Amino acid sequence: MNDITSAFHEYFEIVIANTQALKNEVFSLRYQVLCIHEGIPGFQADNYPDGQEKDEYDDYSIHLLLRHRSSNSFIGTTRLIMANDLNISQKFPMELYSQFYKEYVNIQILRKHTTEISRFIIRSDFFKRKEDSRFLDDNNLMGDYAKGRRRFPHPMLALAVGVIQLCAKNDIYYWLSSMNPALNRLLNFYGMQFDPIGPLVNHHGLRRPYYVCLLDVLERMYTNHREIWELVTDNGRIWPAKLEHLKIISAPRQDKPNTDISIMTC
């Protein structure tokens, strides 16, 4: 077990929010971060009198929580919006609120193998309470890794571990996301960067639509970030090093045109 994997298991635990009590933790954490601490446009606290931020996509999403072990508190969450089994042609939210470069209009990826990753957040005070040794400092995290010491995984990476492992369980090979470009630059640090497929749009702040094939991410990580690959794949037990057969399985089928991604050009 390499150092970064050991540190991940020492500091963090991925929890699948598969009960209503855990989902309430998700919605409460989203409310605290998006509505109270960060004040993201479009997330006015008055619109959520019960202190829970949720929307219509939550019903067919898989929700993750990130637990910080030593404080026994949930510090992060994200969701994977899945294809709607009752309406397989229903668009992902990114398709509705973004515009796209012409080369991505007929992206031809099957919805059943696609997820939109959203509400990817870490509790803001996790980085601010420097006097509390239970909470790691963001600058120290990045600095340690950049200098090669690699003792502490960034909590964003910890959330990504859960996402990648859930994708293996649900036959998900393609990712969509609408995010601040700064987050994509952070993911690039671990070989998990997305490809921009459209211009910036003002939707809950300035965001850009992104797409990536998870299999390409895993191959890139295996080549350039082997320690990270070992962490997210559990040393190849969750995702194998050789992915050729999965690329065949995940290839779009031309006989089902209504089940692939069709997006609007800018």
Explain what this protein looks like in three dimensions.
Strands 1, 2, 3, 4, 5, 6, 7 and 8 form an eight-stranded mixed sheet that branches. The protein has helices at 3-11, 20-37, 93-97, 125-128, 138-146, 155-169, 181-188, 214-224, 226-233, 244-250; strands spanning 12-16, 61-68, 73-81, 114-122, 174-179, 195-196, 201-202, 206-213. Strand 2 and strand 3 (73-81) form a beta hairpin. The model is unreliable at 129-150 (pLDDT under 50). Helix 1 crosses helix 9 and helix 8 crosses helix 9. The longest helix is centred in the first third of the chain and has 18 residues, at 20-37. It has one domain: 3-Layer(aba) Sandwich (Aminopeptidase). The protein has 266 residues and is an alpha+beta fold. The protein is built from ten helices and eight strands. The radius of gyration is 18 Å and the shape is globular. Helix content is 35%, strand content 18%.
CATH fold node name? Aminopeptidase
The major β-sheet equals: 8 strands, mixed
What is the number of domains?
1
CATH class: Alpha Beta
Report the CATH architecture: 3-Layer(aba) Sandwich
Q: Look at the structure and give the mean pLDDT.
A: 85
Strand content: 15-25%
Q: Distance N terminus to C terminus? A: 47 Å
Structural class: alpha+beta
The arrangement of helices and strands along the chain is: HEHEEHEHHHEHEEEHHH
SSE arrangement:
Blueprint: H1 3-11, E1 12-16, H2 20-37, E2 61-68, E3 73-81, H3 93-97, E4 114-122, H4 125-128, H5 138-146, H6 155-169, E5 174-179, H7 181-188, E6 195-196, E7 201-202, E8 206-213, H8 214-224, H9 226-233, H10 244-250
Parallel strand pairs: 4-5
Antiparallel strand pairs: 1-2, 2-3, 3-4, 5-8, 6-8, 7-8
Helix pairs in contact: 1-9, 8-9
